[in-house]
Amino acid sequence: METKQTRYSLLNDQAQSLLDGEHDLIANMSNLVSLIFNSDQNINGTTYYRLKNGELILGPFRGKPACVHIPLGRG
């Protein structure tokens, strides 16, 4: 039986491999979202939001459609 620590260690190693040598922020965010989303069948979505002009703006994600704008303090 695989432990949570073992799964996270593997996920960390995979993330480091994906990011190695790549400097584009959006590409890295996209790959990490996909890696995390596909790492566990119980996850129904993985999303990055960016803080811009006092609200959260949708970034790279995997899963069901997500809110594009979220005011701070909500959501």
Describe it.
By secondary structure, this protein is an alpha+beta fold. The chain has a single domain, classed as Beta-Lactamase. It has helices at residues 4-19, 25-37; strands at residues 45-52, 55-63, 69-71. The chain has a three-stranded antiparallel beta sheet with strand order 1-2-3. α1 packs antiparallel against α2 (25-37). It is globular and about 40 Å long. The mean pLDDT is 93.
Write the layout of secondary structure elements.
Blueprint: H1 4-19, H2 25-37, E1 45-52, E2 55-63, E3 69-71
Antiparallel strand pairs: 1-2, 2-3
Please give a handful of descriptors for the protein shown:
75 residues; alpha+beta; Beta-Lactamase; 3-stranded antiparallel beta sheet; globular
| Poorly predicted residue ranges | none
Provide the domain count. 1
Name given to the CATH homologous superfamily:
GAF domain
Q: Indicate the proportion of strand residues.
A: 25-35%
Q: Helix tally?
A: 2
- The total of beta strands comes to 3
Q: Architecture in CATH?
A: 2-Layer Sandwich
CATH fold-level label: Beta-Lactamase
Give Rg in angstroms.
Answer: 14 Å
Sheet with the most strands, sense and barrel status: 3 strands, antiparallel
Structural class: alpha+beta
Percentage of residues assigned to helices:
25-40%
Order of helical and strand elements: HHEEE
Distance between the termini: 35 Å
